[in-house]
Amino acid sequence: MALLKVSFVQMSKRCLQQHVGVCWNLGSKLNVHTPPTMPPCDFMPERYESLPYNHILEIRKQNFSPQMSTYFQKPLLLHQGYMQWLFDYEGKRYLDLFSGIVTVSVGHCHPRVTTAAQNQFGRLWHTSPVFLHPAIHEYAEKLTALLPDPLKVVYFTNSGSEANDLAMVMARSHSQNVDIISFRGAYHGASPSTLGLTSVGAFKPRTASGSSCQTTMCPDVFRGPWGGSQCRDSLVQTIRQCSCTPGCCEANSQYIEQFKNTLHTVVAKEIAGFFAEPIQGVNGVVQYPKEFLKEAFQLVRERGGVCIADEVQTGFGRLGTHFWGFQSHGVLPDIVTMAKGIANGFPMSAVVTTPEIANSLTKSMSFFNTFSGNPIAGVIGSAVLDAIKEDGLQENSQETGSYLLLKLAKLQNEFEIVGDVRGKGLMIGVEMVQDRESRQPLPLKEMNLIHEECKDMGLLLGRGGLFSQTFRIAPPMCITKQEADFAVEVFHSVLRRHMEKKAKGKF
59: part of which helix (H) or strand (E)? Predict the structure, then answer.
């Protein structure tokens, strides 16, 4: 039991294994080629004794989908993880700033979550919802207690795509309408139905999918046609200037007019609903003007539609100021979907809605999911909520996330190619450009080189944006300020090297 009471800070202090090198802070006069010192970690991974690396590459080539791409020229073969750290098959350690695509919320193999899962594995794995089991009921009570009234009815599913799929059915069943709107640049899944909501070209199939789904302009205040210096809910604003007065955002007004235009031209007079991520994830951590969702939700409801908040990436305290992303916009959705961080990497998701909408779905169809009463899922979900609360991870997301965001923003003063730094809590985007005036995306070749060199120095970043031009930063919420310093030092060092090579015409 003593192990379960160890806080994430204490666990981070258990790290004593050092990388060779001298710590290089921003503004120091040490040689730019001196590698930053990796923070300590005394967790020692087990020796790798599984399939040889080249054999895994052969299996990947022969037996996996050819669309299953990997990061890096030499794909990274991971072996073990502990909290914010990952270890490859050769024992090299990496600071994980992407959490398995914003999925590992409380830390890799968090002791409390791991112990809870191991105990349940020894008792009962699966029952299905036609039987009762305390674990999933306890979790349902805990989860719905974290949502405002009247969001109190939960449906358990297995992935974000499946959760959004069900939310689409709910919206249409309740409204008795069919048209659903989502933002351009949105990612809501890759099932046949949710592909209609997803609006990222690389994910769109040539065949028909997702009927009666329409997209509207994403109110992106950095890359979009309108934006200013005080539009978004972030400690860091865009470099774009505006003449807006407090409480009046011209960019927001323009984007709302575009949303109204969508309602007037491409959908029926009455619609089923509107899907929105509180912050777009796959599109590169894109934030909207502060009042946009509030006004858009009102317009949708005037058309008979319901409002769906996709919290797959933003939920569970990641944004710091609030437990749910929609709360930071001052709105109350009719349906909330969640996945990824809900179970720290275990395949689980949920849809929470109102009794009224749940009754509409019941009248429309008989919904059933074989795994929605799974005891393992219930136990892991509860343990994740306990870890978030007892380890103070939402508070850490706010404090350490703000610290990291402001340090990254300082890179704009030195590097012209750092076009925008944005985000909330531990969901941050760094958009790279050729120059700030044009805001044209940094070429893919250069993005890949920067990404690769960060990995070589022990830092794993995500990628996003329609042109893969944004580095996505969403680490496990247990990351510390010391590790945030290391991340910025590595990124700074890599950018300095990159600009040196660029000045010499090496690419």
Answer: helix 53-63
What is the distance between the alpha carbons of residues 284 and 277, in angstroms, rounded to a whole number?
12
Q: How far apart are the first and last CA of the chain?
A: 56
* Distance (Å, whole) CA 220 – CA 466: 12
Measured CA distances, 414 to 135, 228, 386, 409, 503 (Å): 52, 21, 42, 10, 15
- The SS3 call for residue 421 is strand
Contact at 8 Å (CB) between 463 and 455? Answer: no
**Distance between CA atoms of 330 and 294, rounded to whole angstroms?**
7
| Three-point CA angle 178, 324, 400, nearest 5° | 140
pLDDT averaged per 10 residues in sequence order, the chain, 507 residues = 39 40 39 81 95 96 90 96 98 97 98 98 94 96 98 97 98 98 97 95 82 96 95 95 87 97 97 98 97 98 98 98 98 98 97 98 94 94 98 98 98 97 98 95 97 98 97 98 98 96 85
Here the tokens at position 355 are 């009794």
Distance CA 192, CA 165 (A): 9
